[in-house]
Write a structure and sequence with these properties.
The structure is a single chain. With 409 residues, the protein is of the alpha+beta class. It folds into 2 domains: 3-58 and 267-408, no CATH class; 62-259, no CATH class. Helix content is 53%, strand content 19%. It is built from 12 helices and 12 strands. The strands form 2 sheets. A 6-stranded mixed β-barrel has the order 3-4-9-6-8-7. A two-stranded antiparallel ribbon has the order 2-10. A hairpin with a 2-residue loop joins strand 3 and strand 4 (108-117). Helix 9 crosses helix 11 (318-354) and helix 9 runs parallel beside helix 12. It is a multi-pass membrane protein.
Length: 409
């Protein structure tokens, strides 16, 4: 073992337990431990929030989405579909029509986001984990069309899946009828459909009505046009970002091709920025706690002046004396950091295993605060503590080296 560390360890363990210097050192250890624990836990919570949001996106959003670069709709040709399906990694293409519409059920009405999907939507099975009642079928016996509605729409309209008499009415303004009175029923296209399933993910998806593409196309008068194409990529060996890039190169600049993360880039970026600011804030808190190391080492240097002079007399160099006090600060900080990291990992494990802290709200995926441990964050926390320890230990260590030289002179 290095001589400076051996002497530092001896100083650390041989202090008088009633010494004021020893009390300050223990306060410093406790402060570093609490700050480190808080950083591990908070960063893990942000990781969990990012992870749970990605799971929510995956439940509803497609792996890759194609939308027109201009306007709300575009004409889908067989050649375009063949071109997309020929790209390696593309497993399935779902044609989508989406717009706002008026939904009525009995005496209740509300504005919904109406989403028309073709038969491949059910095959994708994304909403399986979010389904809370009914089924995901779009057609029943005899070709009866069914809609899959969000829990928010069901509550707003008081819909009962057991009621086979009352239909769900969908209304959309007619195109090219500006002279008609908008309060008249003649100004709207209308269709009826039966609700067949209810899903719940979280509030941002709580106003959706998903219906067969042909029904929505007729209601919205899209006439072969589509709002978007949703791509499901092969489950193994392909990355969403890579497939999206290949599709973009293939179909040209008339379309915007985005993977799931790009579709939700603003929210994911906000989580990462918040995580960064919290990490910086907690770093300053650890720095404040580590100031006690500065005071502890400063007073230790005064107490050990005779020892330092003796070491100089025995041939010690200023760098050895400086390293002794740097090692002393490192021992104090490292002890607190180890306790803090282990405590943080334990708290995260308990939360992941038992969900001790509830979010106060429920989703289809989680009802407790999500936590995800990432070892890079633990390494980052350790690196921050090392930097802070060097920063607060260097000045008292340098002063101890200089004071010993002065006594010798």
């Amino acid at each position: 073992m290095n001589l400076s560390y051996r002497i530092a360890i001896r100083y650390f363990f041989s202090r008088n337990k009633r010494s004021f210097i020893s009390v300050i050192a223990r306060i410093a250890m406790a402060g570093v431990a609490v700050g480190t624990m808080a950083m591990v836990v908070v960063l893990s919570v942000f990781n969990g929030m990012e992870d749970i949001n990605r799971k929510m996106f995956k439940t509803f959003d497609a792996d890759v989405t194609i939308t027109p670069a201009e306007g709300k709709r575009f004409l889908v040709s067989d050649s375009l579909l063949k071109s997309i399906k020929s790209i390696e990694g593309v497993d399935m293409v779902t044609q989508i029509i989406q717009d706002n519409a008026l939904a009525r059920y009995g005496n209740q009405q509300t504005i919904v986001r109406l989403k028309g999907v073709d038969s491949t939507f059910s095959i994708r099975g994304q909403l399986d984990t979010a389904l809370i009642e009914g089924s995901l079928k779009l057609y029943g016996p005899g070709g009866t069309p069914y809609a899959v509605i969000s829990d928010g729409v069901r509550n707003a309209l008081s819909i009962s899946l057991q009621d086979i008499i009352t239909p769900l009415e969908l209304w959309y303004p007619k195109t090219g009828t500006k002279t008609l009175n908008v309060t008249s029923t003649e100004a709207f296209n209308q269709t009826v459909i039966r609700p067949g399933g209810v899903f719940f993910i979280e509030n941002r998806y709580d106003d959706y009505v998903i219906a067969p593409l042909s029904i929505v196309e007729s209601l919205l008068q899209y006439q072969g046009q589509r709002s978007s194409l949703e791509i499901k990529i092969a489950s193994k060996g392909y990355l969403e970002k890579d497939v999206a890039q290949d599709i973009e190169e293939k179909i040209g600049n008339k379309f915007i091709v985005r993977d799931r993360d790009a579709m939700n880039a603003d929210l994911l970026r906000a989580i990462r920025v918040e995580k960064l600011f919290v990490a910086v804030t907690l770093s300053f808190i650890i720095l404040v706690a580590a100031i006690n190391i500065f005071f502890s080492l400063s007073m230790l240097a005064i107490e050990k002046k005779k020892d330092v002079s003796m070491l100089y007399a025995l041939g010690a160099t200023p760098s050895l004396i400086r390293n002794i006090f740097l090692a002393e600060g490192a021992i104090v900080a490292l002890s607190g950091a180890i306790v803090g990291i282990l405590s943080g990992i334990l708290i995260c494990w308990l939360q992941m295993s038992y969900g001790l802290v509830s979010m106060g709200m429920s989703t289809a995926l989680v009802d407790a605060y999500p936590v995800k441990l990432i070892w890079q964050d633990i390494l980052l926390t350790g690196g921050i503590i090392v930097i802070i320890t060097l920063a607060v230990s260097y000045i008292p260590a340098r002063r101890a080296a200089l004071s010993g030289q002065t006594l010798i002179v």
